[in-house]
Amino acid sequence: MKKLLLSIPLLLLFSCASVPKAPFDLLLGYDYSIVDNEFNTIKGDFYNVNYSLEMQLNLGAGFSTRSKAFGQGVYVDIRTLAVHNFNATDYRITAISENFGALPLKENSNKFPTVTFFIPTNFQTAEEAKAAVKGDVITITVNDRVYRFVAPL
Known about the structure:
Helix content is 14%, strand content 44%. By secondary structure, it is mainly beta.
């Protein structure tokens, strides 16, 4: 009984978070479609690819209900080393989903540095979300370089 009483305040603390939660929990990372041998390795949630002789990019794309900053939606994250001074104002960067359209730029940060594109969604079930992303392809363009991600479904 004491264990149950101690866990109730923790449940209340977590249920009062300021970011609205989706009615379900789902994270679908899209798979990278390798072209022209630019793929190097997987680093955590990111695919490390060559951009130029001097710079590599860490790319990630998918659907998530776990984003604390943005909520439920389709995302693209691009990161590189801080020494490269990579940001969306110095490069022509687009992210376009075949199923959802153009993803707007949501973050252009010097942390890592990070460029994030995100389009919000409002699915009520995991099945709705899976059906919506099925067959989706996200095309990321950085200046003249093109990178593609495909939905795992």
